[in-house]
Design goal:
heterodimer; A: 418 residues; alpha/beta; FAD/NAD(P)-binding domain; Enolase-like, domain 1; 5-stranded parallel β-sheet; 10 helices; B: 159 residues; alpha+beta; Alpha-Beta Plaits; two-stranded antiparallel sheet
Chain lengths: 418, 159
């Protein structure tokens, strides 16, 4: 049995390790196109901040980790997949045969289609090489303009601020982290980072960037004052890496379509992580969900199925945690709630002065989503309650009256029911 | 034989000796906010329930960690945070469906129960034997693990 895994991020690596445990004799090849050992993009902000060296970003720390598990690392770029002949072709023309293929190629940052996005001092922050380039330029006092206040933008912001950069953020949405935070919570995060000296423009877009001498000048939509910067960082979202699959016959929507076994439309080809549109936990529809815990859960499901052990994913569930200059936020599942006519109710606890916020959203007596700000204790239980679809019974009304009691509600309902 | 914390909530008086002992063992101070075991107060029922990590087989925290900072202690079976490697990204704190890994702002790292290298201070401090450290087979942890198994894929996904 020969397993090929394209992509050596957390998804590919966890799949390789799981396959090794299940099939001690199989050949396992893990393919990545960067000249680095497998590393974690999640760790890049901490590398940029200087808290860790490059080895601190590595997914596995022991140098002989891969050799010991007989996981062959191959540095190459895959140019196409032929699921009929069950081979892949590499950029150098070499071919590799597979019995089972896992596509875990992740995603790439998008650059908005505006003039000047290709200037030398305009960077995305996605790879270790990106981080090295930014670290060389984001010196104390440097004026940094960041496009996008989504999850990645926010997590980089912390590192840039720690480097002493003077930060301006432009976000097209009406608040910070609009795809992860409620209106109230996103507004509170904006207020918090502004108090820390970051300039935040929401409901605005950059329409062009020009080089003027040593500086970059960014034009702002609706005739706003142009923003002058030494460095522009583009964090305007990510898209699945699917270009090389054109013509392969593998069904693709916005990402690779997979069933709840993480199998694609083609036999013996699986996909997991950022690159897939997996079945959503609540919606039952294909969803893009580029987050770490989902990626590794999907990797394990895919690996079990590749090894012939039927295993089913319960569906992709968005869970996120973010630290914006010391204010910690998290969001879970369908945090925006459900319609009243579908049994939706919710509660929002707001303490703007102390930057504490908690929103719980229910459908009937089941928690379906949550958002928190300034909360670090026991937040994982919110995931547990959502994903087990625990019936809260009388606890629901107690939570509507006091949402802070979610841990007691879990102990009182979930554990009793189990 | 591996041992586990066994919690019998009916014996808990809510004295918080466990929380004090945990904080002192790990940080050298008596600060309940730093304890990795928490006693929950059920006002409606007049009940106190101590609660901490069960060292579950699924190890959601360990699997979600992007930098390999959580590992199994081979002697105790505990999932242990290596503070030198933890970058403080907090992904484990939202991945753990039991809510027993928490971020500590002071240190910039996460913390969880590590069974004190096989001598849990909470169990030693508990005056009523509500918390004991016993052979794993006796703890009735299966109930909680069954719940953990429902959280995502089949439990064997951790094989």
């Amino acid at each position: 049995m020969r397993h090929l895994i394209i992509g050596n991020g957390p998804t590919g690596l966890v799949a390789a390790e799981t396959l090794r445990r299940l099939q001690p004799q199989a050949d396992i090849v893990l393919i990545g196109d960067e000249a680095e050992p497998p590393y974690s993009r999640m760790a890049i902000p901490y590398f940029l901040q200087g808290g860790i060296g490059v080895d601190g970003t590595y997914l596995r720390k022991s140098p002989d980790h891969y050799a010991k598990r007989r996981i062959q690392l191959l540095q190459a770029r895959v140019s196409w997949v032929d699921p009929v002949k069950k081979v892949i072709e590499l950029a150098d023309g070499k071919r590799e045969r597979y019995d089972k293929l896992l596509i875990a190629t992740g995603s790439h940052p998008v650059r908005p289609d505006v003039p000047g996005m290709d200037l030398p001092n305009v960077h995305t922050c996605w790879t270790l090489d990106d981080a090295r380039a930014i670290a060389a330029k984001a010196k104390p006092g440097a004026r940094v303009l960041q496009l996008g206040a989504g999850f990645i933008g926010c997590i980089i912001m912390e590192a840039l601020a720690a480097r002493g950069a003077k930060l301006t953020i432009v976000e097209m949405g009406d608040r910070m982290v609009p795809r992860m935070m409620t209106e109230k919570a996103g507004g509170m995060i904006k207020h918090w980072v502004e108090r820390k000296g970051v300039s935040v423009h929401v409901n605005e877009a950059i329409t062009a960037i020009e080089q003027q001498g040593d500086a970059l000048v960014a034009k702002v939509s609706r005739g706003g004052t142009p923003i002058v910067a030494d460095l522009v960082i583009c964090a305007a979202g990510v898209r699945p890496n699917i270009g090389f699959l054109a013509g392969s016959g593998i069904e693709i929507g916005r990402g690779i379509r997979v069933d709840n076994h993480m199998q694609t439309s083609v036999a013996d080809v699986y996909a997991a992580g950022d690159v897939v549109e997996a079945i959503g936990f609540h919606s039952g529809q294909p969803e893009l969900n580029a987050i770490q815990p989902n990626a590794v859960d999907q990797a394990r499901v895919a690996a079990h199925n590749m090894a012939g052990e039927a295993t089913v994913s319960q569906g992709s569930l968005a869970i996120n945690v973010l630290d914006t200059l010391g204010l910690i936020s998290s969001s879970f599942g369908q945090w925006w709630g459900a319609k009243k006519e579908e049994g939706g109710t919710g509660v929002e606890l707001v303490d703007e002065g102390n930057f504490r916020y908690l929103s719980l959203q229910f459908q009937d007596d089941v928690l379906i989503g949550a958002t928190s700000l300034g909360w670090t204790e026991h937040v994982g239980v919110l995931r547990g309650l959502i994903q087990t679809r625990t019936r809260l019974g009388a606890w629901k009304d107690r939570l509507l009256a006091d949402p802070t009691g979610f841990m007691a509600a879990y102990l009182g309902s979930a554990q009793k029911a189990a | 034989m591996q041992k586990s914390l066994h919690i019998d909530a009916s014996k808990c008086t809510g004295c918080l000796q466990c929380e004090m002992a945990c904080s002192y063992e790990n940080y050298g101070v008596f600060n309940l906010a730093k304890s990795r075991i928490k006693v929950f107060n059920f006002e409606h029922e007049g009940r106190k329930v101590p609660y901490t990590c069960t060292q579950c087989a699924e190890a959601w925290c360990m699997n979600a960690c992007p930098v390999d900072a959580i590992a199994i202690n081979a002697a105790t079976g505990a999932k242990v945070v290596n503070e030198a490697v933890c970058v403080g990204c907090k992904v484990c704190t939202i991945a753990c469906p039991f809510g027993t890994v928490n971020y500590v702002a002071d240190t910039g790292k996460v913390q969880k129960c590590d069974l004190c290298d096989g001598h849990p201070a909470c169990a030693e401090a508990c005056p009523t034997a509500a918390i004991t450290f016993v052979d794993s087979d006796w703890t009735g942890l299966d109930k909680m693990r069954a719940w953990a198994g429902k959280t995502d894929t089949a439990a064997r996904a951790s094989a």
